[in-house]
Amino acid sequence: MRILSNTTSPYARIARIALAEKGFDLSGTRMVNPWADDPALVELNPAARVPTLETDEGLPITESLLILLWLEKKVPEPSLLDGPLDRIVSQAGRAMGVIDAMVHIIIGVMQLDPNWAETRVGLRRRRSIVNGLRGLEADAPVYEGGVPDIAVLTTVVALDYLRLRFKDAPWVEPTPALDALRAKVADRPAYASTVPYV
Ligand SMILES: N[C@@H](CCC(=O)N[C@@H](CS)C(=O)NCC(=O)O)C(=O)O
């Protein structure tokens, strides 16, 4: 098994953290630039996006949340869904909404127009980030030890990506509860070894 990733993608980080927490050896991880149409990536995944996982049989498995689904069935223990299921999935959905909105803005700004964030759609995505984080801050995922569930995982990935891409944005609000949550898991190898960087 190997995974094609890059150093910034929150989606790829979700998959990498989950794989590491489930005990997979990630030494075969290959960093690629999806925007440069790396031939190995295009061949495995017509969408040319990371994360793209290749099984030992050469089968591509793509889409971060499908990778989580596959993993949870493939290696049930330790589970990433231990705890109140409805709440965990609901909070993870909220965090994914924040991640999607951030990535949409970054793609617009980097690939289309430096002022894209100020367009009607860009401002709508900003609202999704602010409101999504407010909701998570008001009702933060709970971590009490063990392997963090997907609500914690996706929230911490969202926070670190926010720090990477929007650190100085004036519209970013303080998130003390989420920062405290992040501090609780930051030293776990799966998290510490995948902190995003440009
Ligand atoms: N829905 C996909 C999104 C993956 C995605 O958009 N990855 C970005 C990196 S953050 C990418 O590879 N973008 C290249 C492109 O859109 O062409 C997932 O959850 O895995």
UniProtKB/TrEMBL annotation:
Cited Pfam families: GST_N_2
Coiled coil: none
InterPro entries named in the record: Glutathione_S-Trfase_N (IPR004045), GST_Omega/HSP26 (IPR050983), Thioredoxin-like_sf (IPR036249)
PROSITE patterns reported for this sequence: GST_NTER (PS50404)
Lineage top rank: taxon: Bacteria
Residue ranges annotated for the GST N-terminal domain, each copy included: 1-79
Protein name in the entry: Glutathione S-transferase family protein
